[in-house]
Amino acid sequence: MNFLEERILKDGIVKEGNVLKVDSFLNHQMDIDLLDEMGAEFKRRFEGKPINKILTIEASGIGIACITAQHFDVPVVFAKKSESINLDGDMYVAEVESFTHKCKNHVIVAQKFLTPKDHVLIIDDFLANGCALQGLIQIVQSSGATVEGIGIAIEKGFQPGGQIIRNLGFQLESLAIVDGMDASTGQIWFREQPAADRDKAESREETTAEKTCGDFCRSSTLD
């Protein structure tokens, strides 16, 4: 069991409707030491990739993306969910559906912040049905940039998003994959991690003692 799985078991709360609340340490109140450890792990998993930019979506992905960016020494771009007076010039736009909020949003990135020279790592906190990720992928591809990989904090392995993204051929690295939850007992089951992750967790302990999203995932540009 790795460090994030341990923290989820300790402080995560399972709610009805396949909802996993991690707001005490990840996506409302944030444990910066934990995020730093996550950033270091993403750096290890994408070692050797020519990543020069990190892309995420507001709002919950921003904290994880910023701490991860410190390990890569690259800037962060976050897709906005609504237009504002602060946005100007040409835009890339994708329509995505949120599993958590049960609504559709247009996510927007200014074209000046993504170019064909960029090699992008996409970061987000949760992966469920994969629509948000597909929207971000389409924005990157519309810009001519390259998706070098996708890093997810928590993947719901019992939902189709992970398989959809892997079938598209991208390197998807999820730090914790939840294969099942029981709201009545609070139990959480994780998918077994690769040997390298188990070895790292053990070393740390010793040291311290498919379906697609259809029309919901369209991408376009705005002039």
What does this protein structure show overall?
- The protein has helices spanning 3-11, 32-45, 61-72, 131-143, 161-167, 195-208, and strands at residues 13-15, 19-21, 53-57, 76-79, 91-98, 103-110, 119-127, 146-156, 172-182, 187-190, 218-222.
- It is of the alpha/beta class and 223 residues long.
- It has one domain (3-222): Rossmann fold, CATH 3.40.50.2020.
- The strands form 3 sheets. A 6-stranded mixed sheet has the order 4-3-7-8-9-10, with helices on both faces. A 3-stranded antiparallel sheet has the order 6-5-11, with helices on one face.
- Strand 9 and strand 10 form a beta hairpin.
- Helix 2 (32-45) packs across helix 3 (61-72).
- Mean pLDDT is 86; it is low at 198-223.
How would you sum up this structure in a few lines?
Helix content is 31%, strand content 32%. The chain has 223 residues and is α/β, with parallel strands linked by helices. The chain has one domain (3-222): Rossmann fold (3-Layer(aba) Sandwich).
Helix content: 25-40%
Low-confidence stretches: 198-223
Task: Give the N-to-C terminal Cα separation.
Answer: 48 Å
- Strand neighbour order, sheet with most strands: 4-3-7-8-9-10
What is the structural class?
A: alpha/beta
Keywords:
223 residues; alpha/beta; Rossmann fold; 6-stranded mixed sheet; 3-stranded antiparallel sheet; 6 helices; 11 strands; 31% helix; 32% strand; globular; disordered C terminus
Layout of strands and helices, then pairs:
Elements: H1 3-11, E1 13-15, E2 19-21, H2 32-45, E3 53-57, H3 61-72, E4 76-79, E5 91-98, E6 103-110, E7 119-127, H4 131-143, E8 146-156, H5 161-167, E9 172-182, E10 187-190, H6 195-208, E11 218-222
